[in-house]
Amino acid sequence: MRTTKIMSLAVLGALALSPAAFAQDAGTTSADTASGKHFAVVGGVTLLQPKSGPADGIDKFDGGPAPTVSASYYFTDNVAVELWGAADKFNHRVRANGGKVGTVEQQPLALSAQYHFGAADNVFRPFVGAGYYESNFSNEKIDGLDASGDHVGLRTAKGAIGTVGVDMNINSTWFARADARYMHARPELSVAGAGTGEKLKLDPWTVGFGIGARF
Fold this sequence. Notes:
Blueprint: H1 2-26, E1 39-49, E2 60-61, E3 64-74, E4 79-86, E5 90-96, E6 99-116, E7 124-141, E8 152-154, E9 157-169, E10 174-183, E11 188-191, E12 194-199, E13 205-214
Antiparallel strand pairs: 1-3, 1-13, 2-5, 3-4, 4-6, 5-6, 6-7, 7-9, 8-11, 9-10, 10-13, 11-12
């Protein structure tokens, strides 16, 4: 319910900005265009959901929301490179045998190349991207997974990330964004600081909503 409320507020905020932005756009000259602008920043909220049954003995890592930000450089109106990451940590409850056995946090950061379809001033501009990411895990409190009671941790996840999304232009500067991302995440479990060789198949999807500006 909390996640739904956060996403709803993000969408409503985008819609609330639209009338004022379009009204402002009506008073500008025809030379006012999104074309040729090289930088863009986006802030929003993202829900991250790992897959179920990531390893033997672990049923699920619950998903959760976190604020995210991105900065892009456009080489052309269609080709860009994006740095995207979580401004705060995603918090996950770890479940095994039908109950909670602990919590863990993670904070991903990704660098991707993107292709944005259509003209820069189109109202809707879908885009796709692919790149590399790393996600650091911290504050692991899942020691009950090991019979010895030693500290159980997760090593940094690294791998490929894919992105699909769409921008809705409000005017030549402002736009709303919705996107989905997939991360190939196989972090290794460690016990008492030593690697175990066992990797979790987390492979999370994310769904995000935000507001951006280009300049």
